[in-house]
Amino acid sequence: MIVEMRTYTLALGSTARYFALYSEKGLALQKRILGHLVGYYSVEVGGLNQVIHLWAYDSFEDRAKRRAALWADPDWQAYGREMSSLVIKQENQLLSPAPFFKVPDPA
After folding, report:
1. Which of 6, 41, 87, 95 is least enclosed by beta carbons within 10 angstroms?
2. DSSP string across the chain
3. Per-residue confidence at 100, pLDDT binned at 50, 70, 90?
């Protein structure tokens, strides 16, 4: 299993709008296609105006297949165009859980 951590740096003051748009249009699409949401957070101390979300996958290949399916979805493409003005920067990391850690069940 791998966990992808995505960090989005948002335009100043746009976190509430980001969360509203995501909960209305993006969350259900991602949960349906990506499947295993581990967590979704906003940063309170440190790099502000950031949102971090974690998604678990069976393998790198599983991730690639699911991400391709997400971007092939016309509703996701429309959502991405609407969201793009809020996101200034995106960072992705693929994480391997420690041998003693069990990734939590989907959120």
Report:
1. 41
2. -EEEEEEEEEPTT-HHHHHHHIIIIIHHHHHHHT-EEEEEEE-SSSS-SEEEEEEEESSHHHHHHHHHHHHH-HHHHHHHHHHTTTEEEEEEEEE---TT-PPPPP-
3. very high
Confirm whether pTM is higher than 0.85: yes
* Cα end-to-end distance, the chain, whole Å: 16
Q: What pLDDT shows up at residue 47?
A: 81
Residues in the chain, how many? 107
Tens-digit pLDDT profile for residues 11-64: 999 999 999 999 999 999 999 999 999 999 999 888 889 999 999 999 999 999
The answer to whether 107 touches 53, Cβ cutoff 8 Å, is: no
Q: What is the dihedral of CA 56, 89, 86, 42, to 10 degrees?
A: 50
Angle between helices 74-83 and 60-72 (to 10 degrees): 80
